[in-house]
Specification:
Length: about 240
């Protein structure tokens, strides 16, 4: 069972909106090459970026809170701290995940928003509109070119094969032009099976109906698309007289 977002979970307007956030960062931070340099981007938006060990020397109490909350990266006010013991690929993804919360104004209280921040990180690190031009149409090449982990590259490769760049053509062209100012092609629709990466069987979070209803309301208020599961639940809630 897939427990992460991909392009098919969005309608065109929702995907366009997410890609617009990615493009905004590229333009404001003058991002023109891969792998993207994450820390200067965060500093551009006013964040101080520190490793957990650096944070411990600065503020032992804050370090204890960060480490107790997450083993990857944590945002507290204008500080983003990360676990330097993780791989560089994991650190970069975690930092862009935290940026996603800031850029899209997402709270950190619900799994659906965490998934959305993950999808933002995936797209800002590996914009789908550049994969063909970078000759990176394989899991291994995505890892090498964009500096992401094998697990992330496997998901990105699957997403790339499912996406139709022409559905959000204008925004994808603008993203592509940040790196290569020439026209972009559609990805080949050849039947190529991505390399499967065995993932840990972490226990999946199951929200209560009340939490799901509140989540749906926040998502709609933010103008973001509902996942197929939540769209079905929303229709059921409407039939029950809930708005």
């Amino acid at each position: 069972m897939r427990n992460y977002l991909c392009c098919t979970d969005f309608n065109r307007a929702g995907l366009n909106r997410l890609l617009d956030y990615v493009l905004k960062v590229y333009k404001e931070c003058n991002v023109t090459s891969f792998p993207i340099d994450c820390i200067p981007i965060l500093q551009h938006y006013g964040f101080g970026v520190f490793s957990y060990s650096e944070l411990k020397e600065m503020d032992d109490e804050l370090y204890g809170m960060c480490q107790g909350y997450t083993d990857d990266a944590f945002t507290f006010g204008r500080i983003i701290a990360y676990n330097e013991k993780k791989s560089q690929e994991r650190i970069r993804f975690s930092l862009m995940h935290e940026l996603g919360h800031h850029i899209m104004d997402l709270p950190s209280t619900d799994k659906s928003f965490e998934d959305l921040a993950d999808y933002f990180a995936s797209n800002i690190l590996v914009p789908r509109a550049t994969i063909w031009h970078m000759r990176s149409e394989s899991v291994r090449n995505i890892c090498r070119t964009y500096g992401v982990s094998c697990m992330a590259a496997n998901r990105i490769y699957k997403d790339y094969k499912m996406c139709h760049l022409s559905e959000c053509k204008e925004i994808n062209q603008e993203i592509h032009d940040c790196f290569f100012p020439i026209s972009i092609p559609e990805p080949a629709r050849s039947i190529i099976k991505p390399i499967e990466i065995i993932e840990d069987d972490d226990e999946e979070y199951e929200p209560t109906p009340k939490e799901m209803y509140a989540d749906i309301q926040r998502t709609l208020k933010a103008g973001l698309p509902l996942s197929p599961k939540y769209a079905s639940l929303y229709r059921m809630f409407r039939k029950m007289g809930l708005k």
